[in-house]
Amino acid sequence: MVIAADPYGSILALPESLNQTHANEAYKVEGIGYDFVPNVLDQRSVDRWYKTDDREAFAYARRLISEEGLLVGGSSGSAVAAMVRGVRDLELGRGDTVVVVLPDSIRSYLSKFVDDDWLAANDLLPLTPPTTNPSSPDLKAVSFSEDAFSAATIQTLRLKPVVTVLSDSTCADAIETMREKGFDQLPVLAPTGQKLVGLVTLGNMLSWIGQGRATAQSLISEVMFSFSKISEVVTNPRDVGQIAPAKGSQSAMTNGETDSQGLPHRRKFVEITLDTPLKALSRFFEWNSAAIVTEKDGKGNMRPVAVVTKVDLLAWLVKQKSVSS
Question: Which H/E stretch holds residue 171?
Fold first, then answer.
């Protein structure tokens, strides 16, 4: 049996009724799908077509990269998404042989779906683990040994002093600051310079300016990830696994990775402080690429003290391993 993947917005799948859902919509996956049927394509040689979307395609492609070491492109994620559905619908088991063609490499996509900021800017970050089989890792299953972190907190990490930008500054100002300091993201403060209101990233500005939606003179408030649209703040992240979104829920955890154009799903802001355990931070990084470390001033406003990334946590782990050995 031959199974094929066709993205929503394309018209290649049969029967043609499959193409009516999300008809003529643009899609980000490249190299597959068309708005016409090429002469070289024999559609009827395919026994079953599955329509795929960008979010699941990029999620599977990133899993192939991180879990299997296969440097594939987004269309390979589409192929795997179709395979997963086919295996489920056909009730295939361990005794069956399944061959998946991965049609593209990562070469042209290092600044696209591989980049968390690009996914966030295009509203394609996974909100919950995929519910297909095989399932995504559960946040409660920590990637590292629990003993590796012991009782260490973020305070033990060697973090650089925070560099911020005001929300009424221009993109040009933020870009220059990033260039000088070597950062790719900056916490954003209110014009008074007292309250944390968002996060601006290099990837997000590149997307906005590159697509003509903003210019170098646009205000940071127009392109930043705004925290004002987050409905709930979680102030105790000591058990991040317990507040992870349940399968099928409409909520997600964030610490600065939300779309400034609004939130179609309810999100929770996880407050990360210097006292946050590294075990909780590790679980948080299953969903986010960086976190703003904050503390509260006398008025209860959060202010940033540092930005912590996966690199900081990994460097600490490597150092601990070398010391113990």
Answer: helix 171-181
* Secondary structure element (H or E) that encloses residue 166, with its range: strand 165-166
CA–CA distance, 244 with 141 (Å, rounded to integer): 12
Q: What is the overall mean pLDDT for the chain?
A: 80
| Predicted confidence (pLDDT) at residue 86 exceeds the cutoff of 80 | yes
Q: At a CB cut-off of 8 Å and minimum separation 6, what does 199 contact?
A: 185, 186, 187, 188, 224, 225, 227, 256, 257, 292
Beta bridge partners of 226: 198
CA distance linking residue 180 with residue 174, whole number of Å: 10
Over residues 195-207, mean pLDDT: 88
β-pairing verdict for 290-296 and 302-309: antiparallel
Strand (E) or helix (H) holding 10: none
The CA distances from residue 97 to 1, 72, 93, in Å, are: 11, 22, 9
- What's the one-letter identity of residue 88? R
Contacts of 242 (CB under 8 A, 6+ apart): 140
